[in-house]
Protein backbone atom coordinates (compact mmCIF):
# COMPACT_ATOMS: atom_id res chain seq x y z
CA UNK A 1 0.00 0.00 0.00
CA UNK A 2 1.04 3.56 -0.62
CA UNK A 3 0.87 5.94 2.32
CA UNK A 4 0.28 9.64 1.81
CA UNK A 5 3.38 11.69 2.59
CA UNK A 6 5.69 8.66 2.58
CA UNK A 7 9.01 9.21 0.83
CA UNK A 8 9.11 5.58 -0.22
CA UNK A 9 6.22 6.26 -2.56
CA UNK A 10 8.56 8.04 -4.98
CA UNK A 11 6.93 9.40 -8.15
CA UNK A 12 3.69 7.50 -7.46
CA UNK A 13 2.98 9.76 -4.48
CA UNK A 14 2.62 12.77 -6.81
CA UNK A 15 -0.12 11.16 -8.90
CA UNK A 16 -3.69 12.48 -8.44
CA UNK A 17 -6.13 10.22 -6.51
CA UNK A 18 -8.00 9.26 -9.69
CA UNK A 19 -4.87 7.74 -11.22
CA UNK A 20 -4.11 5.91 -7.98
CA UNK A 21 -7.58 4.35 -8.07
CA UNK A 22 -7.02 3.36 -11.69
CA UNK A 23 -3.71 1.67 -10.89
CA UNK A 24 -5.13 -0.13 -7.85
CA UNK A 25 -8.07 -1.43 -9.88
CA UNK A 26 -5.73 -2.62 -12.62
CA UNK A 27 -3.56 -4.45 -10.06
CA UNK A 28 -6.62 -5.99 -8.37
CA UNK A 29 -7.76 -7.61 -11.60
CA UNK A 30 -6.72 -11.26 -11.67
CA UNK A 31 -6.55 -13.62 -14.62
CA UNK A 32 -8.10 -17.06 -14.59
CA UNK A 33 -6.83 -18.28 -17.96
CA UNK A 34 -5.14 -21.67 -18.25
CA UNK A 35 -3.78 -23.61 -21.20
CA UNK A 36 -3.05 -27.27 -20.46
CA UNK A 37 -2.30 -30.58 -22.17
CA UNK A 38 -5.05 -33.20 -22.14
CA UNK A 39 -3.67 -36.67 -23.05
CA UNK A 40 -5.67 -39.29 -24.90
CA UNK A 41 -8.07 -41.36 -22.76
CA UNK A 42 -7.68 -38.75 -20.00
CA UNK A 43 -9.92 -36.43 -18.00
CA UNK A 44 -8.95 -33.22 -16.21
CA UNK A 45 -11.11 -31.48 -13.59
CA UNK A 46 -10.87 -28.06 -11.94
CA UNK A 47 -12.55 -26.73 -8.81
CA UNK A 48 -13.62 -23.23 -7.83
CA UNK A 49 -15.13 -21.93 -4.59
CA UNK A 50 -18.02 -19.62 -5.53
CA UNK A 51 -20.38 -17.59 -3.37
CA UNK A 52 -24.12 -17.62 -3.94
CA UNK A 53 -25.41 -15.08 -6.43
CA UNK A 54 -22.05 -14.67 -8.20
CA UNK A 55 -22.18 -14.45 -11.97
CA UNK A 56 -19.64 -16.72 -13.68
CA UNK A 57 -18.58 -17.35 -17.27
CA UNK A 58 -16.72 -20.37 -18.62
CA UNK A 59 -15.09 -20.11 -22.04
CA UNK A 60 -12.95 -22.81 -23.63
CA UNK A 61 -11.33 -23.67 -26.93
CA UNK A 62 -9.31 -26.64 -28.18
CA UNK A 63 -6.09 -25.34 -29.73
CA UNK A 64 -4.38 -28.48 -31.01
CA UNK A 65 -5.00 -32.19 -31.44
CA UNK A 66 -7.19 -34.49 -33.49
CA UNK A 67 -10.42 -32.91 -34.66
CA UNK A 68 -10.00 -30.06 -32.13
CA UNK A 69 -12.87 -31.26 -29.95
CA UNK A 70 -13.33 -32.14 -26.29
CA UNK A 71 -16.10 -33.03 -23.82
CA UNK A 72 -16.95 -30.44 -21.16
CA UNK A 73 -19.07 -30.82 -18.02
CA UNK A 74 -19.92 -28.33 -15.23
CA UNK A 75 -21.46 -29.35 -11.89
CA UNK A 76 -22.63 -27.43 -8.82
CA UNK A 77 -21.77 -28.44 -5.22
CA UNK A 78 -24.73 -30.88 -5.16
CA UNK A 79 -23.52 -32.66 -8.30
CA UNK A 80 -26.26 -31.22 -10.50
CA UNK A 81 -25.08 -30.81 -14.07
CA UNK A 82 -25.30 -27.18 -15.16
CA UNK A 83 -23.58 -27.59 -18.51
CA UNK A 84 -22.64 -30.60 -20.61
CA UNK A 85 -21.43 -30.70 -24.19
CA UNK A 86 -19.83 -33.50 -26.18
CA UNK A 87 -17.03 -33.06 -28.74
CA UNK A 88 -17.08 -29.28 -28.83
CA UNK A 89 -14.29 -27.24 -30.39
CA UNK A 90 -15.15 -24.08 -28.46
CA UNK A 91 -18.02 -22.70 -26.44
CA UNK A 92 -19.03 -20.19 -23.77
CA UNK A 93 -21.43 -20.66 -20.85
CA UNK A 94 -22.63 -18.07 -18.31
CA UNK A 95 -24.45 -18.91 -15.09
CA UNK A 96 -25.25 -17.50 -11.65
CA UNK A 97 -24.26 -19.57 -8.63
CA UNK A 98 -27.39 -20.82 -6.86
CA UNK A 99 -25.60 -21.65 -3.61
CA UNK A 100 -22.27 -21.42 -1.84
CA UNK A 101 -19.82 -24.20 -2.42
CA UNK A 102 -17.24 -25.76 -4.71
CA UNK A 103 -18.14 -25.94 -8.37
CA UNK A 104 -16.43 -28.48 -10.61
CA UNK A 105 -15.85 -28.36 -14.35
CA UNK A 106 -14.09 -31.13 -16.26
CA UNK A 107 -12.63 -31.60 -19.72
CA UNK A 108 -12.55 -35.12 -21.10
CA UNK A 109 -10.60 -36.65 -23.98
CA UNK A 110 -11.60 -40.21 -23.13
CA UNK A 111 -13.18 -40.75 -26.56
CA UNK A 112 -9.78 -40.25 -28.24
CA UNK A 113 -7.44 -43.24 -28.44
CA UNK A 114 -4.27 -41.82 -29.97
CA UNK A 115 -4.31 -38.02 -30.06
CA UNK A 116 -3.83 -35.64 -27.15
CA UNK A 117 -5.29 -32.13 -27.04
CA UNK A 118 -4.22 -28.69 -25.93
CA UNK A 119 -7.12 -26.90 -24.25
CA UNK A 120 -7.48 -23.25 -23.27
CA UNK A 121 -10.15 -22.04 -20.85
CA UNK A 122 -11.04 -18.79 -19.10
CA UNK A 123 -13.20 -19.05 -15.98
CA UNK A 124 -14.40 -15.64 -14.79
CA UNK A 125 -15.93 -15.40 -11.33
CA UNK A 126 -17.84 -12.23 -10.61
CA UNK A 127 -17.52 -8.92 -12.39
CA UNK A 128 -14.76 -6.35 -12.28
CA UNK A 129 -15.40 -3.70 -9.60
CA UNK A 130 -15.98 -0.19 -10.96
CA UNK A 131 -13.01 2.12 -10.97
CA UNK A 132 -14.94 4.81 -9.12
CA UNK A 133 -17.70 3.41 -6.84
CA UNK A 134 -20.88 5.48 -6.91
CA UNK A 135 -21.50 5.24 -3.18
CA UNK A 136 -20.33 8.08 -0.91
CA UNK A 137 -19.90 10.40 -3.91
CA UNK A 138 -21.49 13.84 -3.95
CA UNK A 139 -20.01 15.00 -7.26
CA UNK A 140 -20.03 13.63 -10.78
CA UNK A 141 -16.97 12.10 -12.38
CA UNK A 142 -14.36 14.58 -13.47
CA UNK A 143 -13.05 14.65 -17.00
CA UNK A 144 -9.88 12.79 -15.97
CA UNK A 145 -11.88 10.13 -14.15
CA UNK A 146 -14.16 9.64 -17.15
CA UNK A 147 -11.08 9.31 -19.35
CA UNK A 148 -9.71 6.66 -16.95
CA UNK A 149 -12.94 4.68 -17.21
CA UNK A 150 -12.88 4.87 -21.01
CA UNK A 151 -9.23 3.78 -21.13
CA UNK A 152 -9.95 0.91 -18.73
CA UNK A 153 -12.80 -0.39 -20.90
CA UNK A 154 -10.71 -0.01 -24.05
CA UNK A 155 -7.83 -1.94 -22.46
CA UNK A 156 -10.17 -4.79 -21.51
CA UNK A 157 -11.39 -4.98 -25.11
CA UNK A 158 -7.80 -5.00 -26.35
CA UNK A 159 -6.94 -7.86 -23.99
CA UNK A 160 -9.93 -9.87 -25.21
CA UNK A 161 -8.98 -9.30 -28.87
CA UNK A 162 -5.35 -10.22 -28.18
CA UNK A 163 -6.40 -13.46 -26.51
CA UNK A 164 -8.76 -14.29 -29.39
CA UNK A 165 -6.17 -13.67 -32.09
CA UNK A 166 -3.46 -15.48 -30.10
CA UNK A 167 -5.65 -18.57 -29.92
CA UNK A 168 -6.46 -18.37 -33.63
CA UNK A 169 -2.78 -18.01 -34.44
CA UNK A 170 -1.88 -21.04 -32.31
CA UNK A 171 -4.63 -23.13 -33.86
CA UNK A 172 -3.66 -22.06 -37.38
CA UNK A 173 -0.01 -22.85 -36.72
CA UNK A 174 -0.96 -26.29 -35.42
CA UNK A 175 -3.06 -26.99 -38.53
CA UNK A 176 -0.23 -25.82 -40.79
CA UNK A 177 2.34 -28.00 -39.01
CA UNK A 178 0.01 -31.00 -39.18
CA UNK A 179 -0.58 -30.41 -42.90
CA UNK A 180 3.17 -30.03 -43.47
CA UNK A 181 3.82 -33.34 -41.72
CA UNK A 182 1.22 -35.13 -43.83
CA UNK A 183 2.61 -33.65 -47.04
CA UNK A 184 6.13 -34.73 -46.04
CA UNK A 185 5.02 -38.31 -45.30
CA UNK A 186 3.02 -38.44 -48.56
CA UNK A 187 6.03 -37.20 -50.53
CA UNK A 188 8.30 -39.82 -48.95
CA UNK A 189 5.74 -42.53 -49.72
CA UNK A 190 5.44 -41.40 -53.34
CA UNK A 191 9.24 -41.38 -53.70
CA UNK A 192 9.47 -44.94 -52.34
CA UNK A 193 6.67 -46.15 -54.62
CA UNK A 194 8.30 -44.47 -57.63
CA UNK A 195 11.65 -46.09 -56.80
CA UNK A 196 10.09 -49.55 -56.46
CA UNK A 197 8.17 -49.17 -59.73
CA UNK A 198 11.29 -47.97 -61.56
CA UNK A 199 13.36 -50.91 -60.32
CA UNK A 200 10.55 -53.28 -61.30
CA UNK A 201 10.38 -51.81 -64.79
CA UNK A 202 14.15 -52.18 -65.23
CA UNK A 203 14.04 -55.85 -64.32
CA UNK A 204 10.97 -56.40 -66.52
CA UNK A 205 12.60 -54.80 -69.56
CA UNK A 206 15.82 -56.72 -68.89
CA UNK A 207 13.88 -59.95 -68.91
CA UNK A 208 12.51 -59.15 -72.38
CA UNK A 209 15.96 -58.80 -73.99
CA UNK A 210 17.79 -61.56 -72.16
CA UNK A 211 18.82 -64.64 -74.22
CA UNK A 212 16.94 -67.77 -73.42
CA UNK A 213 19.07 -70.77 -74.24
CA UNK A 214 17.14 -73.87 -75.08
CA UNK A 215 18.73 -77.26 -74.68
CA UNK A 216 17.88 -80.10 -77.06
CA UNK A 217 18.31 -83.69 -76.26
CA UNK A 218 19.18 -86.00 -79.16
CA UNK A 219 17.90 -89.50 -78.89
CA UNK A 220 20.50 -91.97 -79.82
CA UNK A 221 19.97 -94.07 -82.86
Automatic annotation (TrEMBL):
- State the membrane topology: Single-pass type I membrane protein
Establish whether keyword Transport is in the entry: yes
SUPFAM superfamilies for this protein: Supernatant protein factor (SPF), C-terminal domain
User: In this protein, which residues make up the domain named GOLD?
Assistant: 43-125
Indicate the transmembrane segments per the record: 183-205
Please name the Gene3D superfamilies in this protein's record. Answer: GOLD domain
Instruction: List the PROSITE patterns hit by this protein, alphabetically.
Output: GOLD, PROKAR_LIPOPROTEIN
User: Which Pfam families does the record match to this protein?
Assistant: EMP24_GP25L (PF01105)
Q: Which UniProt keywords apply?
A: Cytoplasmic vesicle, Endoplasmic reticulum, Glycoprotein, Golgi apparatus, Membrane, Protein transport, Signal, Transmembrane, Transmembrane helix, Transport
- Please give an example of a GO cellular component term from this record: Golgi apparatus
Question: Which domain of life does this protein belong to?
Answer: Eukaryota
Residues in the signal sequence: 1-31
| Keyword ATP-binding tagged | no
Q: Name one GO biological process term.
A: protein transport
Purpose:
Potential role in vesicular protein trafficking, mainly in the early secretory pathway. Appears to play a role in the biosynthesis of secreted cargo including processing and post-translational modifications.
To which protein family does this belong?
Belongs to the EMP24/GP25L family.
Q: What is this protein called?
A: Transmembrane emp24 domain-containing protein 7
Organism whose genome encodes this protein:
Herpetotheres cachinnans
Amino acid sequence: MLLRGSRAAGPWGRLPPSWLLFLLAACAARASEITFELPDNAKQCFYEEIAQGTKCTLEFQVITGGHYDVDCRLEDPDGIVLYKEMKKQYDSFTFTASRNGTYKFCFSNEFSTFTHKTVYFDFQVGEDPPLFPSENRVTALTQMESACVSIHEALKSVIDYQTHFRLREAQGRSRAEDLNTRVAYWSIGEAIILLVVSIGQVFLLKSFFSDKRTTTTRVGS
